[in-house]
Amino acid sequence: MRSKLFALFLALTVPLSLAGCAGDDTAEEPASPDAVEAPADQPTAEAPPAPGEMPEAAESPSDLGDWFTYEPPDGRYEIKFPNEPLEQNQSIPVSETEEIELSLAIYEDTSQGRAYMSGANPIPLPEGASFDVDQGLDGGRDNAAASTNSEVESEESINVEGLPGRAIVMRNPEGVRFKLMMLADSENAVLYQLLVGAQDGNLDFPEAETFFESFNLRQS
């Protein structure tokens, strides 16, 4: 069975792909907490998985060479996970005639109560519109907090491999804390998201830092 932490990760990532990022008057406001559920024809975060769908829990290796190097189907980036992640592919409707393909990789270390996630979300823009970095990052932050009923504890601007972004720490009422790194590729209208969560609220462990630092942009 998927844990509550795994389900929270799914709930958190969907709104990020829908955040308004167009730099013109056609951009939508970030979704409200009441609008973060998946459409009726899409699986919700709480849907039970097929047997054996979740990777086996394993202790995080001490040697980075033992980590699993993940690259998504589109080859945009690579990143190292403590163990092989589960790929979660979803088609997200963004209008009556358009949808985007969202590919996520999630690994959960159930023995430690920790989870790791990466994804690259293409942002559909109206014709003639440009990618508004601040609007996209603000929308991603607000929707992530709303979808997990979390409060933002801290936020700082970052720049990774030439991409502007945010490093955000959030906590939900159950004490689960998340560190979310969002990076905005304005040229290609893509929002990268890297996430680590801890059920005990402790995000200061070396594997988290190793995960974030292993991100490597392959396509821009």
From TrEMBL:
Question: Which source organism?
Answer: Phormidium yuhuli AB48
| Record's protein name | Lipoprotein
Q: Which UniProt keywords apply?
A: Signal
Q: Where is this region: Disordered?
A: 21-70
- The answer on whether this UniProt entry bears the keyword Signal reads yes
Q: Which residues form the signal peptide?
A: 1-19
